[in-house]
Design a protein that fits this description.
The structure holds three protein chains of three kinds.
Chain A (H helix, E strand, L loop, with lengths): L4 H4 L37 H12 L22 H7 L2 H4 L4 H4 L7 H18 L3 E3 L5 H19 L5 E5 L5 H8 L3 E5 L9 H7 L4 E7 L11 H10 L3 E6 L11 H4 L3 E4 L19 E3 L12 E4 L2 E4 L17 H37 L15 E4 L1 H7 L3 H9 L7 E2 L8 E4 L7 H20 L18 H6 L8
Parallel strand pairs in A: 2-3, 2-4, 4-5, 5-6
Antiparallel strand pairs in A: 1-7, 6-7, 8-9, 10-12, 11-12
Helix pairs in contact in A: 3-12, 6-12, 7-8, 12-15
Chain B lengths: L7 H11 L28 H13 L6 E2 L12 H7 L2 H4 L11 H18 L3 E2 L6 H15 L5 E5 L4 H11 L5 E5 L8 H7 L4 E7 L11 H9 L3 E6 L17 E5 L15 E5 L11 E6 L5 E6 L5 H4 L12 H38 L5 E2 L8 E5 L4 H10 L2 E2 L2 E2 L10 E5 L6 H14 L1
Parallel strand pairs in B: 1-13, 3-4, 3-5, 5-6, 6-7
Antiparallel strand pairs in B: 2-8, 7-8, 9-10, 11-12, 12-15, 14-15
Helix pairs in contact in B: 3-11, 5-11, 6-7, 11-13
Chain C lengths: L2 E3 L4 E6 L2 E6 L1 H7 L2 E5 L6 E2 L4 E7 L3 E5 L4 E6 L2 H4 L3 H5 L4 E7 L9 E2 H9 L2
Antiparallel strand pairs in C: 1-2, 1-10, 2-3, 3-9, 4-6, 5-8, 6-7, 8-9
The chains are: A alpha/beta, B alpha/beta, C alpha+beta.
């Protein structure tokens, strides 16, 4: 039974009480300014609402209940301590306009937390300064590419292009376009890394930036990365680091040390803040010397008297968020960093890479494995042979897993691998869960060989099965109407 | 080691399976000269110590005073059921609903969210939320450019939240577009000048109603003029106002933007909240962000799915409507629960109470001789007072009396010295309002 | 009427100076279930290989490029409500008609045999 709140609504039911007004009504506004009828919201008791959403929650997979080996998403355990800290009155009820009023005395705790976070991020990444304001990875990418644009503009450079590898996440070219750059896509070689010779051909004086993910979206480390940085810099093209895969390299590589000029991190990936069903996340952006003067205008500084707001440079790109972005998400990431500390973060990356290689070693003889070398924190397999010989596709494998309480890995990304299945277990999963997952993947292959037709009706134990996406788009219905 | 379950035994078994001696071998492909030059972080702490640290930090912030701060971010009630439901880990540790069968909870909640937003705003289409009210305005402006087939000018009324205008200008700086600011006429829109500016070079006009000063105006004439030249009308507002004020749909606006903080979300020092972006049906393919639709599954069961994904980055890549990859899902969920708990009657009551209480405050303050109410237009839940002392002095002295008295406008707007924006919500009692007014009398 | 193809997978047939343009069956098969077609405006002018229209499916979206230069004189309005016609009969469903400005461009397109060979290489 999946009726909406509107279908459960009954005229006259009421939910919560608001405080009594306690004073007389003021004269009403002129009717030309007032709405002609009340907004149609459901009428339900508080209990109706609680039951409805409790039952909805039971229809979800979630990290707490299900293994989520989604490549590129880093679905690690979200520590409960984060939620407890998020409930602290002195954080949750803090008004952002104390910033506008420059009342630093009222927000010393918040400013200190931001400074500590920034210092941690600088040390983890080797970058010189951070803006904490972007609200998601894609938002951080946009901020970073805007700063690159501002850098070139200040120098009077005539730049038109951004280079991305063909394995890149869709946000990379979409971001470049938002900042009005054209995209040049460079192909990957058979080892899965951006092809160096093709890169050299694509590079020119008109290239503004090169956007890379390290390790790349196939979970592989490109050994030519330093050379790529040097070639780019020789043409005054800046190097952008997409930090989505940071979970593989904490304590091992720092993008600032290699020569990246600007990076973004996904706090909801590497730093374990909850995904919330799709957000909120946070995407802080770190920069090298060249780009400091372009940072968005809200920063935190410190002297013997305490914490205060930094003076923005005249070249700041402006604002990408109203205040410090998703401050309460930033707090949760800092909670995680303080809990793990130096050894904890190094260990997290090691175990993430260990888990992914363990899975690769167990499954590479059952699926196509396009890349034979050790992977990093995620591995890519392919169902191409299964598709050719039995008509069973990556999506079918995904649906099979759901009935066992296993969320599917990422399928159909990256685009350069046909029928790709990208698996990122993260370091928080234990060996029993991983063994179970591998067994089910192998069972899926067996089923494909013996009874390929069976996949068509999967999953069978979930609230729905194989929704008709074509119908959803052709007969568009995005709101309930009686 | 926190949060990793591996025992020595586990590690040995795994290394044996892979065919290595220890896990560091897996990093061999990374040459030494590329390795981290330092990784000088503090040691990890126990949960207890971490919590004490943050309790300490939180205590160095002041949330103790009675708040009359508004300016787009308000101290509204948050029903306990909102927290209880949204902190269920099935909601907050879930992922983006790409596998519909595993995400019917998230997807149905978003469908219900979309429905409520359309009903509140009078629009026919909306997405599953943007980052915040400011970035929503920027995306709306880019929509207007696409809809108007690449006209190059956007007019933004200076009555729009100045912080949001900064975001708009930052976003649009990289496109071959012109953002024209329309100066306010006292506390409202300079309609004459605006009408003289509207022509076929304009992609769209952005206004806020009630505006940043709390003033409410009738924009129907402006919107007609915009439509005459096929330009797009973008209305921004603070959603509680929609409880009693004309919706964007009723005035025939094309796009609505707003910030969802006041719908069941904590202030949180500015975030996370969420952005509302809604529009007329015919523009739905220009909307950025995720959209949830209803359909049937293999056996005819009603199902909810992400739809129109072909607009989004993971498919369109460099031709996407936006690079946005996420929504503020959990905050939109909280708003959905909030609106369900208030309901049709309750939401109007809430808006009315906000209006009545701020009218009472306004009336009482107006009785103080040396203070002027700056607004000439009617207002909703906030208004601007003109003081005989500096805004800084006023705010500091009122803080000593136990109040966060309001917003210093001169930080954001030129020529607004000695003016403070004060706001009330349903949480302010008559006694608190009286005490506020008495304190103002004392310090002037 | 001979049909020719562009390497962006549009087909064209020509009658005097009026050309009918559609999408190849291969293109539609790659896109999957078509959900939406944004037709060009009547009167719009395009040069060879300009992006002139837009098509969307459940899992993909693509520009439609005009294989010939000219002015759009008619569009297939049925596709607005029933985009699935393309899935049923792409090779027989025209999308728009052009008054061509340079009929000799038609000869530069691939004939059916060449196009068939071309898609084998993809």
């Amino acid at each position: 039974m999946n009726s909406t709140l509107f279908e459960k609504s009954h005229n006259g039911r009421s939910g919560i009480n608001i405080p009594k007004q306690g004073l007389a009504d003021a004269p009403s506004l002129d009717s030309s300014l007032l709405r002609s009828a009340k907004a149609e919201l459901p009428e339900l008791s508080e209990f109706d609402v609680v039951r409805h959403f409790t039952r909805l929650s039971n229809k979800n997979f979630s990290i707490d209940a299900n293994f989520y080996p989604l490549g590129s998403c880093t679905m690690k355990y979200n520590p409960k301590i984060q939620e407890r800290v998020g409930g602290l009155e002195g954080l949750a009820n803090l008004h952002p306009h104390h910033i506008t009023n420059n009342k630093t005395s009222l927000v010393q705790g918040a400013l200190k937390s931001l400074k500590i976070l920034e210092d941690n991020l600088k040390e983890i990444t080797g970058m010189k300064a951070f803006t904490l304001t972007p609200q998601a990875g894609a938002h951080g990418e946009m901020t970073g590419v805007m700063m690159i644009g501002a850098y070139h503009k200040k120098k009077g450079n005539n730049k038109r292009y951004v280079i991305v590898p063909d394995s890149s996440h869709g946000t990379n070219p979409a971001t470049a376009a938002m900042v009005d750059y054209d995209v040049i896509t460079v192909k990957s070689n058979k080892d899965g890394s951006m092809d160096l010779e093709s890169f050299k051909d694509a590079m020119s004086e008109e290239v503004a930036a090169v956007m890379m993910t390290v390790p790349n979206t196939l979970g592989l480390f490109n050994p030519a990365i330093k050379e790529i940085c040097d070639i780019a810099h020789a043409h005054d093209a800046l190097m952008y680091y997409d930090g989505a895969n940071m979970n593989a390299i904490m304590g091992v590589i720092r993008p600032g040390d290699i020569g990246f000029d600007v990076i973004h991190l996904n706090l909801h990936k590497t730093f374990a803040t909850p995904h919330g069903g799709g957000g909120p996340g946070a995407g802080p952006v770190g920069v090298g010397e060249r780009l400091i003067e372009f940072l968005p205008d809200l920063t935190v500084d410190f002297n013997e008297e305490g914490y205060f707001f930094g003076t923005p440079s005249q070249y700041t790109i402006g604002k990408v968020s109203p205040f410090f972005g998703n401050y309460m998400v930033l707090v949760k990431a800092l909670v995680y960093m303080q809990t793990l500390g130096r050894e904890g973060m190094i260990n997290a990356s090691r175990k993430a890479v260990l888990n992914a290689n363990y899975i690769l070693s167990k499954l590479k003889d059952h699926f196509d494995a396009p890349f034979k070398q050790y992977c990093m924190h995620e591995c890519v397999l392919s169902a191409e042979t299964l598709t050719k010989e039995h008509g069973v596709r990556a999506m079918d494998i995904a649906k099979y897993l759901l009935d066992f309480g296993l969320h599917a890995p990422t399928v159909y990304f990256p685009l350069i691998v046909k029928e790709s299945i990208m698996i990122e277990p993260t370091e928080t999963e234990n060996i029993d869960t991983i063994d179970y997952f591998c067994q089910k993947m192998i069972d899926a292959v067996e089923l494909a060989k013996n009874d390929a037709e069976a996949f068509k009706t999967l999953p069978i134990t979930l609230p729905i099965s194989r929704p008709d996406e074509t119908k959803a788009a052709r007969s568009l219905n995005i709101r309930w109407q009686a | 080691m926190p949060y990793t379950p591996h025992t020595q035994n586990d590690v040995q078994r795994m290394c044996a399976q892979i065919g290595i001696k220890d896990e560091t071998e897996l990093f061999q492909s990374i040459p030494n000269e590329l390795r981290a030059k330092s990784f000088d972080l503090e040691e990890g702490l126990s949960e207890f110590e971490v919590f004490e640290n943050f309790k300490n930090l939180a205590s160095q912030n002041d949330t103790s005073k009675i708040s009359f701060l508004g300016g787009g971010y308000y101290d509204h009630i948050i029903p306990t059921a909102v927290d209880a439901l949204s902190t269920r880990s099935e909601f907050y540790t879930a992922y983006t609903p790409y596998q519909a069968e595993a995400s019917q909870g998230t997807l149905q909640a978003l469908y219900e969210y979309q429905t409520m937003i359309c009903n509140l705003t009078g629009m026919e289409a909306t997405n599953a939320s943007m980052y915040d009210g400011g970035t929503a305005i920027a995306e709306a402006a880019l929509m207007a450019v696409r809809i108007s087939k690449k006209r190059k000018k956007i007019i933004v009324d200076s009555g729009v939240n100045p912080i949001y205008i900064k975001i708009l200008k930052t976003y649009l700086a990289y496109h071959d577009l012109e953002v024209i600011s329309l100066e306010v006429k006292h506390d409202g829109t300079d309609k004459e000048t605006l009408l003289s500016m509207i022509d076929e070079s304009i992609a769209g006009y952005i206004f806020q109603n009630p505006n940043f000063f709390g003033s409410i105006e009738d924009y129907s004439e402006i919107i007609k003029a915009l439509h005459n030249v096929k330009a797009v009308a973008i209305m921004s507002s603070y959603p509680i106002a929609l409880g009693i004020l004309k919706s964007a749909g009723e005035i025939d606006a094309d796009i609505y933007c707003g910030d969802g903080q006041s719908l069941g979300n904590y202030l949180g020092f500015g975030g996370p909240s969420f952005g509302i972006l809604a529009c007329k049906e015919k523009y739905i393919r220009n909307l950025p962000g995720r959209i949830v639709g209803i359909t049937e599954d293999r056996v005819g069961k009603r199902s909810y799915v992400l739809t129109l994904q072909a607009r989004e980055q993971h498919i369109r890549r460099d031709k996407a409507t936006s690079n946005i990859c996420s929504n503020q899902n959990l905050m939109a969920l909280r708003a959905t629960i909030f609106l369900s708990l208030l309901g049709k009657e309750g939401f109007e009551k809430l808006a009315l109470q906000n209006y009545n209480k701020s009218e009472y405050l306004k009336t009482e303050i107006a009785k103080i001789d040396s203070i002027k109410i700056y607004n000439q237009n009617p207002t909703f839940n906030e208004f601007v007072i003109e003081l005989p002392i500096s805004a800084t002095q006023f705010i500091d002295k009122m803080e000593e009396k136990g109040f966060f008295a309001g917003l210093k406008l001169e930080t954001l707007l030129e020529n607004f010295q000695n003016r403070v924006l004060v706001s009330t919500t349903e949480k302010r009692t008559k006694a608190q309002i009286d005490s506020f007014v008495a304190s103002v009398r004392e310090i002037i | 009427m001979s049909k020719r193809y562009s390497n962006e997978h549009e087909w064209a047939t020509i009658d005097g100076d009026i050309a009918s343009i559609g999408l190849s069956a291969y293109a539609v098969e790659q896109l999957g279930d078509i959900t939406f077609v944004e037709l060009p405006e009547v009167g719009a002018e395009g040069s060879k290989d300009d992006s002139i229209a837009f098509i969307e499916s459940v899992k993909a979206a693509s520009d439609i490029y005009t294989p010939l230069s000219g002015e759009v004189i008619e569009v297939n309005e049925e596709l607005e409500d029933t985009p699935e016609l393309l899935n049923e009969a792409a090779e027989n469903t025209w999308v728009f008609k052009l008054k061509v400005s340079n009929a000799s461009e038609f000869e530069t397109l691939m004939d059916e045999a060449s196009y068939k060979a071309y898609i084998e290489t993809l």
